[in-house]
Each structure stands twice: as structure tokens, then as C-alpha cells.
Write a structure and sequence with these properties.
This protein has 328 residues and is an alpha/beta fold. Helices cover 45% and strands 20% of the residues. It has 2 domains: 35-127 and 255-323, 3-Layer(aba) Sandwich (D-Maltodextrin-Binding Protein, domain 2), CATH 3.40.190.150; 129-244, Periplasmic binding protein-like II (D-Maltodextrin-Binding Protein, domain 2), CATH 3.40.190.10. Helix 4 (99-108) packs across helix 11 (302-323) and helix 6 packs across helix 11.
């Protein structure tokens, strides 16, 4: 008899616990119930925006919800990253994070978010190289010729990047250190304006994201001296890597973007998004759209992506210290 009396309180407690758990389970089960947004820290027309716009329609199809690209540009992507970090962690706010915003800027200056603590990593998305682009009138058509030309000029040549602390800027600084040349960095407010000045002849060298450089190179309006990754790009297979130059063995300055959400987003939602992103990034049409622009599709687990961010932070902090980079 007493045993029968003990059951109702236990059953009541279980029911109460189940009632508490139900909304969380339901939230994950009916997710997504409304459109999602991908916050991009750069203006339309740049490489980050391009990648977000290539993958968002397909991701929307698989999630059966619209996925909107929300451009919040400024400060080398850190404004967008900060907005993302402070967004509601409900699975509807995603951020296409960059090497610049998660690794380089935090190593140069104080940013209003913690790159590891304030985000839940979902998956690596793409790897993309930079490239050394020059105006066709420049008397250097190879990296050895560029090194020789820089050494002839006091203060070296000017080179542009899409901004202070951008991957192109760091690729240029690593190049200067390894090639033992002086070159003066000219930061622009994005790849578009820098490319316009290079094509207009106002600028001799631009270390550009590969997707920015491929169209003018193919049109014969700019010359690609080299790509900055570990291997040649399938988009421009005839263009060597910087590391193929004698004395530059081991040079590598790749760029990457990966998907994150604000810290505190449900692990079940992160797992769902990682699976959907993996399928989208590896879909034949998406791969073709990316590869044709020199962008390499790349997916990972959240844990792999977190470990990669840590290793990249260690690598680039050394370059930043050696170049004595300071916020402008």
C-alpha cells in the first residue's frame, strides 16, 4: 500500500521535468520556423559576401526557410562579428566569420568580443588564397622580378590590401619578412576600390583575395605573379605559388571563412546546421560556383574548426609581432 503512495509524487516530479524539457525539445524539432540570417562583416561585392550569396539559397532550400544575407560592414569585419556575438542564440542568427575578424584583428587591437568564447563554431566553409596582382605596365612579371624591383627602389614598392590587418596585408608582411624586401603597405576600405586603382594604373601591386583577382587576370587587365596558398589554384593553374620561388619555401598565407553562431546556441541546432552546411558545401553546383572563382569548398566538425582557429591564432600572432603592426 505504502508503495502505491510513493508513485504519484515521483510521477508528478517526472511529469514536471518532462513539461520543462518539452519547450526546448519542441524548439529543436520545429526548427527552423522562420527565416534565418547570415551576418556578413563586409559590403556587397566582396569575397565574403560572394560566398554567403552562393551558399544561402541552397541552405534555405534544405532548411525549407529563407536565408537572408545581412551586410554589416566596417573595421575589417569586426563590426559584423560583434553584432553576431551579441545576437540572440536561437539558431536564427549565423555569421560567416573570417580569418581577419576571428584571428588577425584581435591580435592587433582590442575587439569587443572574444573570438572563441562568444561564438559556437559550426563548420569551416571555404579556404581561399590571396594573389599578388600587378598592373601590366609594371616591369615585374614574376615573384623573383618583383623582389629584384623592390630592392632597386628605396622604400621598395607600394602594395595595397583590402584593409589594415586584412589577410592580404598579412600576406604582404610575411612576404616582406621572407624575401627581405622593403614595401610600403597602402590599406584600402575593401578589395573593390583597391582593384579599381590597380586597373587604373595608380597602384603597382595589390595582394588580393583570389576571387577578386581572377576576372581581371582572365581578361588580361592585370597580371597574376603568384598565389599565396600551399598549392596552385584550379582557377589559374598556370600561376605559381609564392613558395615555388627560390628562398620562399614554406611561404603560405591562406584565407578562410567559417560559419559560427552566438555562444549558447543549442547543441542540437548546431549539429543540424553543421549537417546541412556540409551537404550544401559539397553539392556539385555549389562546388562548381566556388571553384570557378578560385574558392575551395571546405567543411569540418565544430571541434575541428575551433582547433583550426587556435592554430591560426598562434601562427599569425608571430607574424603580427614581427611586423610590429599597430591599430591605425
Amino acid at each position: 500500500m505504502t508503495q502505491h503512495h510513493a508513485i504519484p509524487p515521483l510521477a508528478a516530479a517526472c511529469a514536471a521535468l518532462l513539461a520543462l524539457a518539452a519547450p526546448a525539445a519542441a524548439a529543436a524539432d520545429d526548427y527552423p520556423a522562420r527565416p534565418l540570417r547570415i551576418i556578413v562583416g563586409f559590403p556587397p561585392g566582396g569575397a565574403t559576401d560572394l560566398v554567403a550569396r552562393i551558399i544561402s539559397p541552397k541552405l534555405g532550400e534544405s532548411l525549407k526557410q529563407q536565408v537572408i544575407v545581412d551586410n554589416r560592414s566596417g573595421a575589417n569585419g569586426t563590426i559584423g562579428a560583434d553584432i553576431a556575438a551579441k545576437s540572440t542564440p536561437d539558431g536564427y542568427n549565423l555569421h560567416l566569420a573570417t580569418l581577419g575578424a576571428l584571428v588577425i584583428s584581435p591580435a592587433i587591437t582590442k575587439v569587443p568580443y572574444d573570438p572563441l568564447k562568444d561564438f559556437a563554431t559550426i563548420s569551416m566553409t571555404v579556404q581561399l588564397q590571396n594573389m599578388f596582382l600587378v598592373h601590366p605596365s609594371l616591369a615585374a612579371k614574376t615573384i623573383p622580378e618583383l623582389i629584384a624591383l623592390s630592392k632597386q627602389k628605396p622604400g621598395g614598392l607600394n602594395y595595397a590590401s583590402s584593409g589594415l590587418g586584412s589577410p592580404g596585408h598579412l600576406a604582404g608582411e610575411l612576404f616582406k619578412t621572407m624575401a627581405k624586401v622593403e614595401m610600403t603597405h597602402i590599406p584600402y576600405k575593401g578589395g573593390g576600390p583597391a582593384l579599381a586603382d590597380l586597373l587604373g594604373g595608380q597602384l603597382p601591386v595589390f595582394v588580393a583575395v583570389i576571387s577578386t583577382g581572377v576576372p581581371p587576370v582572365k581578361a588580361g587587365r592585370a597580371v597574376a605573379l603568384a598565389v599565396t596558398g600551399a598549392k596552385r589554384s584550379s582557377a589559374l593553374p598556370g600561376v605559381p605559388t609564392v613558395a615555388e620561388t627560390p628562398g620562399m619555401k614554406g611561404y603560405e598565407a591562406s584565407n578562410w571563412y567559417g560559419m559560427v553562431a552566438p555562444a549558447g546556441t543549442s547543441p542540437a541546432i548546431i549539429k543540424r546546421l553543421q549537417g546541412e552546411l556540409h551537404a550544401v558545401i559539397n553539392a556539385a553546383d555549389i562546388r562548381e560556383a566556388l571553384l570557378s572563382r578560385g574558392i575551395d569548398p571546405d567543411s569540418s566538425t565544430p571541434e575541428e574548426f575551433t582547433a583550426y582557429i587556435r592554430s591560426e591564432t598562434a601562427k599569425w600572432e608571430k607574424v603580427i609581432r614581427a611586423a610590429n603592426l599597430k591599430p591605425n
